[in-house]
Amino acid sequence: MNVATHHLRCTECAAVIPKDDVTSNFRCPKCNGLYEVVYSWSDVKHPPNAPDDPNSRLPNPSALRWLWQERRSSSLAVDQSGVWRFRDLLPIVDDLEKVVTLREGNTPLYDLPRCAKVAGIDWLLAKHQGMNPTGSFKDTGMTAALSVAAQRGFEWVACASTGNTSAAMAAYAARAGLRSIVFIPEGKIAWGKLSQAMDYGALTIQLKTDFDGCVKILGELVQKFPIYLLNSVNPYRLEGQKTPAFEMVEQMDWQVPEHIVVPGGNLANSAALGKGFSEMFQLGLISRLPKISVIQAEGANPLYRWFIDSNRVMKPVTADTRATAIRIGNPASWRKAAAVIDDLGGWCEQVSEQEIALAKAEIGAEGVGCEPASAVTLAGLKKLVALGKITREERVVLILTGHTLKDSQYTIDYHRNELFTDAEKAQLTAGDEARHAALRKPPIVLEADSTLVLRTLESHMNQPQPV
Ligand code: F0G
Fold first, then answer.
1. How far away, in angstroms, is 337 Cα from ligand 1 center?
2. Number of H helices, E strands in the chain
3. Can you say how many angstroms the Cα of residue 155 is from the centroid of all Cα atoms in its chain?
4. pTM
5. Closest ligand 1 atom to Cα of 373
6. Pocket perturbation via mutation, ligand 1, pick of 335, 351, 401 by most ligand atoms within 8 A of CB
7. Which of 277, 240, 280 shows the shortest CA–CA distance to 65?
8. pLDDT digits over 352-390, tens only?
9. 326: CA distance to ligand 1 center in Å?
10. Ligand 1 centre from 44 Cα, in Å?
11. Helix 353-364, helix 430-439: angle, nearest 10
12. How large is the average pLDDT for residues 28-32?
């Protein structure tokens, strides 16, 4: 197998540097752009020349498919990982012994027939990245970037986070015996995520600012201390986060869905998935590309504003949404995500707090569940179908990024009808209100009296189930 080395290329000025020359803030010194990891196949045009030629320097698609499947039955940790199983397309560590893995990836692809129906399409799947070891998609990126940190001999790693990155980083750092520092916005992340960072032994610093403020402080720190930065400006994170694209099409027998719908916060995940699909296409593993659409919360919508602006200017916003994972106003990777939308032909939409809550309850009612930030995908899908951007017969995959237990307070508030403000309730149509009422399942407190319990059950049995 061809284990190519890699370089880093600035996504803005295209300067290529050797991997060891990158600065501690992962920004191009010439233009401040972000880097991407490039391999021998990165500039190959589809279809690659003679992919089955034994003398070709490119990985062979049939051999890769076979090898990736074979590794599933191996007992080696790197083979059991749903990221490192695909290591031929992310040759970023020289020593596989140094890989830090919690057997991430291998996440399920669920069908969501009832959500498909409410969205108005025939066929809907969800790639549930919340089923990773720390409960979010961040694990796939963290195993990659933290393995690089371990290989390079760093003792300290750090990130600024809305919660999930910090949970993932703290866990992987603990596995590697590295020390980790987490910067989170005070009072604006879900408790479950904060508790994970503490449980995994991170030094947790709550800054009296928002996520964007945390990023700024950390950016200054990494230039003064030997700390390895693990925010998604680190291009190795994206190498891990591209692998769910491989896994998804493998799970679909190498069929490509027409449309992928992703939540957008700091905008690295949409970029990573786009890179994964593009590389598979370049290598001849798939014969066409899906569209990738990004959905943001109305209160944290800088990419949406860019998308609808005829001058295409990116203006940071002051972010506010209950989907705290994507409460981000100045997304670092916006140019990369914008390129994916443009190159693959997707859209950007925004969704309201009420739409997010409804979609989250609908995903929960399918027995799948997700955190609020993930539910923007279903809410956005409904809009894209209504706008005619996605048609009934297209196969759509939602990327569910976080587990429902990540933010249980949100779910409890929703079901107790304590989530929305009066002003938000007043904006609901009668139809919306009826839909919410049918989905809400608040706990019922009763005296321990069997007659009373029976009577209560009977009254509930007569109520229709939501679609
Ligand atoms: N969904 C969840 C559950 C997230 O935690 C995040 C980002 C996103 C979606 C957005 O992904 O930033 O790549 O566009 N969470 C980061 C964090 C920012 O710190 O945990 P993105």
1. 13
2. 18, 13
3. 27
4. 0.96
5. 1
6. 401
7. 280
8. 999 999 999 999 999 999 999 999 999 999 999 999 999
9. 6
10. 30
11. 40
12. 96
